[in-house]
Every structure is written in C-alpha cells, then in structure tokens.
Design goal:
With 348 residues, the chain is an alpha/beta fold. The protein has eleven helices and 13 strands. It has a seven-stranded parallel β-sheet, with helices on both faces. Strand 5, helix 6 and strand 6 form a beta-alpha-beta unit. The radius of gyration is 19 Å and the shape is globular. Bound molecules: nicotinamide-adenine-dinucleotide (NAD) and uridine-diphosphate-N-acetylglucosamine.
C-alpha cells in the first residue's frame, strides 16, 4: 500500500526537495505550509519534476498553529508519518522577536503533536539543527555531545527536541527521529527548485549567490582570525539533495524498526572554510565574488562539522556530493532564477 506522508513546511527550501524525493520514491505527499517564507511556485515546480508521480502531491495552505485546520487535514487522510519542517529560522530575527519564534515554532509543534496523537499517527521526523551543539569543545560533533543554544531560534530547536523525548517517554507507541542538519546548500540539479530567502540572506551561500547574480555588491566575510587554516570559520556544508535522501532513510527506519526517540546528524563529516567555499563557487560559476573582510559575527562558532558514523550505521545513509557539486547546482539554480521564484520586478 502506498504510504501517506504529511510534510509541514513542504513549500520551503528543504521541504520542497524532500517532497520531490518522496514522490519519486512512490509516496503520497500532502504539504501543509502557510507560505510565510516560501512560494507556491516551488510546489508547481516539484509537480513538474515529479512527472508520472505528480498526482501524488497535494497542497493545503494552512498555519500549523491553527489546530482546527490540522484536525481537518488529519480527518480527511490517514497519515503513516509526518515530516515536520515548518518553522521560522532566521537567527537575528529570533533575537528581535523571541515571542514570534516561540509561538510559531513551539506552539506549532505542540499543536501538531496533539493532533497527530488524537488521530493515532505517531511517527515523526523533525528538522533539528547543528545549532544545538553551540560552540563545540571538539569536532566532529557526535550525537551525544552536550546541548546548548545561543539564541531563541536555537532554543526552539533544543526545546522541541526535549518535548519530543518527553512525548515518546510518556507513550511508547511514538517513534520519533530528530535530524540535526549541518549546513544545507545547493539545489536540485535541474535548477528548477532551490533556496529563495526573503530579504537579505543570513546564510553564506544564498548571499554568495546573490553577489554572483549582481543583486549585492560584495560578500562580507565574518571573522578572519579564527584558529583555522585561513582564519575563516569552518562548517559542514551538505547538498540539499543528500539531505532530502536522509529523510527517506529516516522514514525507512521508522517504518522498519522498533525505536523510541533517536537523533541523527545529517552532514558530510568534512569541514570547509568560508574562503574555500567562495573559491569553489567562483570556479563553478566563473564569477568573481568581491570580498570585504570584517569582524566575527556574534554567536558564531569557530569550527563545526559532523560525526556521520551513527547515520551511516543505523540509517544506512551517507552524503554523496562534495562542495564542487554543491556549488555547481547552486549556480545552476541561481543563474536560471536570479530573483528566485519571483520576477525581477517583484524584488524589494
Ligand atoms: P524554509 O523557511 O525554506 O522552510 C520552512 C517552511 O515552513 C516555509 O515554507 C514556511 O512558509 C513554513 N512555515 C513556517 N511557519 C509555518 C507555520 N506556522 N505554519 C505552516 N507553515 C509554516 O526553511 P528550510 O531551510 O527549508 O528549513 C526547514 C526546517 O529545517 C526548519 O525547521 C529549519 O529551522 C530547519 N533547519 C534549516 C537549516 C538551514 O540551514 N536551512 C539548518 C538546520 C535546520
Ligand atoms: C547559522 C546560524 C545557525 C543556523 C544555521 C543554518 C548564526 C549565528 N547561526 O549558522 O543557528 O542553524 O545558520 O540556518 O546565525 N558567513 C560570512 N558572511 C556571510 C554569512 C556567513 O562570512 O554573509 C560565514 C559565517 O561567519 C560562518 C559561515 O559563513 O563562518 C557559515 O555561516 P551560515 O551560513 O550563516 O551558517 P552557520 O553560521 O553555521
């Protein structure tokens, strides 16, 4: 029997890539998204890319804080599992508007868990983040490391992880997988779907991409005095298609094995500096990225990369792509869609 998967936040960057992978894997997918940080065009593109499977995708515009709406969705379809991406993710905004973040991310998740429980759907994959490792004392980060959070966004991830652990402890019917993403970058190789942040990008690669297409004059490099090979920060960049595959592996684990609440890192296990990433992107795009060197960004860690052993061992998953493919596909998406899903006229 074809399995029904509810994907919250499925119009977003990671959600749209995962929805496509699910469709191509033969799942029925229902996306719930309020489009606060995304465009419905992404889902139209997912449908086109899914070709023969396109009829297995449906979309409902709803806010996960709206419990009645969620209840209606669960009443009309019996879901086998939920992949929960919906959430706000801008660190700076979370510092300015903590209540918005607690309301959206925590209330939304609590609603979702309640409605899932009411309808007897107790399998969940949740988008956590490497941000819960804070400034790690050593690398690679293993799943057993102590958790911390430096800002309200990070705390929502940490709190939701704890809520999931409590819910599963209270009711052994639940099976929950918490996925800690490292730094997702790149786009689907078609160049038809990718990351399209609203306003000024916070993260490195969306910013680099906007410099490359002429929307921003230069990249500001935050910190040149870190204890790393070239003084710039080190992160574990992971191709978004590999990340999407990690969700299929997590679903298989939920369906095929007994487990309670488990956590897995999704990263490549390799660290790359800001300057190495810029050089790789310049090579892939043939564009020069002008740089302005600046001081450290508050809250940034020096070196963060994943231990990938647990995901390899227990999910049978590992990343396939390196930074060349990440930059190639990022540029393919950027050059085909310099203003994201909107036309140039809609730009701020
Ligand atoms: P995104 O903003 O592109 O996608 C999130 C989606 O959730 C958006 O489409 C948005 O419209 C939707 N949404 C937000 N609040 C909602 C609500 N109340 N009701 C319904 N829909 C809502 O972000 P993304 O990069 O695809 O991230 C997906 C998830 O992964 C988020 O939870 C994020 O915190 C987490 N994550 C992302 C990264 C990253 O670097 N992109 C890293 C670690 C974790
Ligand atoms: C940031 C968030 C983290 C979140 C993650 C994914 C902070 C403090 N941390 O992490 O909570 O989970 O994004 O959404 O915001 N850089 C520049 N110039 C830029 C942008 C970034 O030099 O314009 C550097 C950063 O200093 C860092 C690296 O690039 O060394 C990666 O930055 P970014 O893409 O923002 O990811 P994180 O810092 O890992």
């Amino acid at each position: 029997m074809t399995k029904n998967i509810l994907v919250t936040g499925g119009a977003g960057y990671i959600g749209s890539h995962t929805a496509l992978q699910l469709l191509q894997g033969g799942y029925n997918v229902v996306v719930v998204d309020n489009l606060v940080n995304s465009s419905e065009i992404a889902l139209h593109r997912v449908k086109q890319l899914a070709s023969d499977f396109s009829n297995n995708l449906s979309y409902i515009k709803a806010d996960i804080r709206d419990k009645e709406a969620l209840d209606k969705i669960f009443s009309s379809t019996k879901f086998d599992a939920v992949i929960h991406f919906a959430g706000l993710k801008a660190v700076g905004e979370s510092v300015e508007k903590p209540l918005l973040y607690y309301n959206n991310n925590l209330t939304g998740t609590i609603n979702l868990l309640e409605v899932m429980s009411d309808h007897g759907c107790k399998m969940l994959v949740f988008s956590s983040s490497a941000t819960v490792y804070g400034w790690p004392k050593e690398v690679p980060c293993t799943e057993e490391f102590p958790l911390s959070a430096a800002n309200p966004y990070g705390r929502t991830k940490y709190f939701i992880e704890e809520i999931c652990r409590d819910v599963q402890r209270s009711d052994g019917e639940w099976k929950i997988i918490l996925l800690r993403y490292f730094n997702p970058v790149g786009a689907h190789p078609s160049g038809d779907i990718g990351e399209d942040p609203l306003g000024i990008p916070n993260n490195l690669m969306p910013y680099v991409q906007q410099v490359a297409v002429g929307r921003r004059p230069h990249l500001t490099v935050y910190g040149t005095d870190y204890n790393t090979k070239d003084g710039t920060g080190v992160r574990d960049y992971i191709h978004v298609v590999d990340l999407a595959d990690g969700h299929i592996a997590a679903l298989n684990k939920l369906f095929d094995t007994d487990l309670g609440c488990e956590v897995y890192n999704l990263g490549t296990g390799k660290g790359t500096t800001v300057l190495e990433m810029v050089t790789a992107f310049e090579k892939a795009s043939g564009k020069k990225i002008p740089l302005v060197m600046a001081g450290r960004r508050p809250g940034d860690a020096e070196v963060v990369y994943a231990s990938t052993e647990k995901a390899k061992r227990e999910l049978n998953w590992k990343a396939k792509y390196g930074i060349e493919e990440m930059c190639r596909d990022q540029w393919n998406w950027a050059s085909k869609n310099p203003y994201g899903y909107n036309s140039a006229n809609d730009e701020e």
